[in-house]
Request: fold
Amino acid sequence: MKQRNILITGGAGFIGSHVVDHFVAHYPNYHIVVLDKLTYAGNPANLAEAAKHTNYTFVEGDITDAALVDSIFERYNIDGVIHLAAESHVDRSISAPLIFAHNNIIGTITLLEAARKAWRGEYAGRRFHHVSTDEVYGALGLGDDKFTEATRYDPHSPYSASKASSDHFVRAYHDTYGLPTVITNCSNNYGPRQYPEKLIPLFIYNIVNRRPLPVYGRGHNVRDWLYVKDHVRALDVVFHSALDGQTYNIGGDNEWRNIDLVEELIRIVDSEMGAAQGYSRELITYVEDRAGHDLRYAIDSAKLERELGWSAETSFSEGLRATVRWYLDNGAWAEESLRRSREE
Reply:
């Protein structure tokens, strides 16, 4: 396998750190350069295993810093990008939309422009892989078909609008300059090392610490859940095998109403902690629904399965129990993550 120099942005985050672990272990001839600003959601501890490898380099910095990004392309002769760095929490985007616009849109353009200048039209063997979200498509009704790659964009939150804009810029750079880009749009990820502001790790943490479980509305909103390591395998195959200019949806074919997921988390956590069945149900607290809360997301991954042979392998029961056990075994990690967030 030939030598490659791959830049992974947001590599200290939840999904990014799993991508880094996968690439440094599976591709010893690749030099993996990680760029991360180490915000509250980027934890250096997430990269402890990757740091043991000789084909790994970490750079602390901001994807909107054009001089820094240009210098990374030049110094490390970057020929591939897997772009995961993004502000991603919908609630935070509602209270701070300008931060999301700056980081997610300007950051993506900065990386695209760095790649365009560095590669100078010599695109053979090079790739810019932009990792996005199913939220760019808007919302589905309970009886609607799933999102496909042809679904019209209809973002409803500042977060999803910023990601939709960045997707459009990636396509524009492909169409205008011929930049060898691919885009993937994934459903809700879950698994170890997810920052405890997202539903699954937050509710595990709250159950363990006997805190309220805040459920928006009546908990009838539906999400499609994808185990992070299945997502990483999909990113690998798309990065290496997709045709330039293509978009692929990545989903778990695993839809759950929020309230049913909360009940399942209670069942598993109570069981793992030796509590009586249903002991933590009293923690469920219904709160006012979030502004612009999309009813349902569901991803159709048929194109990815048909063209590149990927499919999700981890059952939800297996993945969810493994996730719960990881958080129960790594309580100090969650506490440290929350402490860092409070200090920002």
